[in-house]
């Protein structure tokens, strides 16, 4: 069993819940349309199977455990390739199929990653979707959070926007941990604090726009303005996911319902929001029915106990 800091485990668990919850909605929305979300009926059991978002987050957490909070890029690249080879049907993006197969075949990861998209590297959201537990783990040192988030991103996504997206999510998770035990920060202040830690970029601009949105902005409008992952890029995913998380830092369940309502790349937006919110709240407030429905984490990852009592009624 891996020994994880409590906040990192909470973040990983929240990420997995968001990932699995969001992933189930792809099929429901195709069959029933957006009106299915209005009923707030959770996806049917079983199984809420998590995707590559969680698979890669588990790899990253194992790497942090071995490196005592630091990322060895060479080792992480091999770990990601090995995890992919062991289970290729987790919804990996097309470019990641190519990258991880080639790394697994022995090609140098730096050359493989740098050669993507005509030498620009991928600016997808894959490095951001897995990184929240890292931010929770290293929350005491925001400089280390940014450094290690960027280091883990470069192993698969070295485009500056992808790296900045990963740093943004990691910093948000760290700030969520730091707010434990006190009142939740207001959305503008929380997002403003994230933006302050980012270099000039489209991701930073998106986070700053999110921070300035009016308190009663609808999910639909936020998704239209910020993007909700339809392009599966860092700039098109991270600002919206963090806007959702920042507005629900005391309520993981509501945060996931609100995030999925923006549609787009919903397993990833929900994974990011879930990882950030749970870094503050943990996952014990989720209904036991959700816990029963979601695929368990691997055996070496400890699980948090589900909530009981009126707040955890099945189906709530």
Notes on the structure:
This protein has a single domain (6-302), classed as ADP-ribosylglycohydrolase fold, CATH 1.10.4080.10. It has 16 helices and no strands. The protein has helices at residues 6-32, 52-66, 73-86, 94-104, 109-114, 126-129, 132-137, 142-154, 160-178, 187-196, 202-212, 219-226, 234-246, 252-260, 266-281, 288-293. Mean pLDDT is 91; it is low at 306-316. Helix 8 packs antiparallel against helix 9 (160-178). With 316 residues, it is mainly α. 59% of the residues lie in helices and 0% in strands. It is globular and about 50 Å long.
How does the SSE layout of this entry go?
Elements: H1 6-32, H2 52-66, H3 73-86, H4 94-104, H5 109-114, H6 126-129, H7 132-137, H8 142-154, H9 160-178, H10 187-196, H11 202-212, H12 219-226, H13 234-246, H14 252-260, H15 266-281, H16 288-293
Helix pairs in contact: 1-2, 1-15, 2-3, 3-4, 8-9, 9-10, 9-13, 9-15, 10-11, 11-13, 12-13, 13-14, 13-15, 14-15
CATH topology: ADP-ribosylglycohydrolase fold
CATH class: Mainly Alpha
Number of strand elements: 0
Q: In percent, how helical is the residue content? A: 55-70%
What is the makeup of the main sheet? Answer: none
Structural class: mainly alpha
Overall geometric form: globular
Number of helices: 16
What is the architecture at the second tier of CATH? Orthogonal Bundle
Radius of gyration: 18 Å
Spell out the CATH superfamily. ADP-ribosylation/Crystallin J1
CA-CA gap between termini? 31 Å
- Write down the overall mean pLDDT: 91
Structural domains: how many:
1
Order of helices and strands: HHHHHHHHHHHHHHHH
Q: Into which percentage range does the β-strand content fall?
A: under 5%
Low-confidence regions: 306-316
């Amino acid at each position: 069993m891996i020994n994880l800091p409590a906040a990192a485990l909470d973040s990983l668990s929240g990420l997995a819940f968001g990932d699995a919850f969001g992933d189930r909605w792809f099929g429901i929305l195709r069959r029933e349309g957006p009106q299915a979300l209005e009923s707030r009926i959770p996806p049917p059991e079983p199984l809420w199977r998590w995707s590559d978002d969680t698979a890669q987050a588990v790899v990253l957490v194992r790497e942090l455990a071995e490196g005592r909070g630091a990322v060895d890029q060479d080792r992480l690249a091999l770990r990601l390739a090995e995890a992919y080879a062991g289970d290729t049907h987790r919804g990996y993006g097309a470019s990641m199929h190519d990258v991880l197969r080639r790394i697994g075949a022995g090609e140098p990861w730096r050359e493989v990653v740098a050669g993507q998209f005509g030498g620009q590297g991928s600016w997808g959201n894959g490095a951001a979707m897995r990184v929240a537990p890292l931010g929770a783990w290293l929350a005491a040192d925001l400089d280390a959070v940014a450094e290690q988030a960027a280091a883990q991103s470069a192993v698969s996504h070295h485009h500056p926007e992808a790296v900045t997206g990963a740093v943004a999510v990691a910093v948000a998770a760290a700030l969520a941990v730091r707010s434990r035990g006190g009142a939740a920060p207001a959305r503008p202040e929380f997002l403003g604090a994230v933006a302050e830690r980012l270099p000039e970029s489209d991701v930073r601009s998106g986070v700053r726009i999110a921070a300035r949105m009016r308190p009663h902005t609808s999910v639909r409008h936020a998704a239209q303005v910020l993007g909700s992952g339809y392009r599966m890029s860092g700039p098109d995913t991270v600002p919206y996911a963090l806007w959702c998380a920042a507005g629900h830092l005391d309520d993981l369940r509501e945060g996931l319902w609100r995030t999925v309502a923006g549609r787009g790349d919903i397993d990833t937006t929900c994974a990011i929001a879930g990882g950030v919110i749970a870094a503050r709240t943990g996952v014990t407030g989720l209904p036991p029915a959700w816990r029963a429905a979601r695929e368990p984490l691997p055996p070496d990852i400890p699980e948090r106990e589900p909530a009981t009592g009126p707040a955890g009624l099945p189906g709530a």
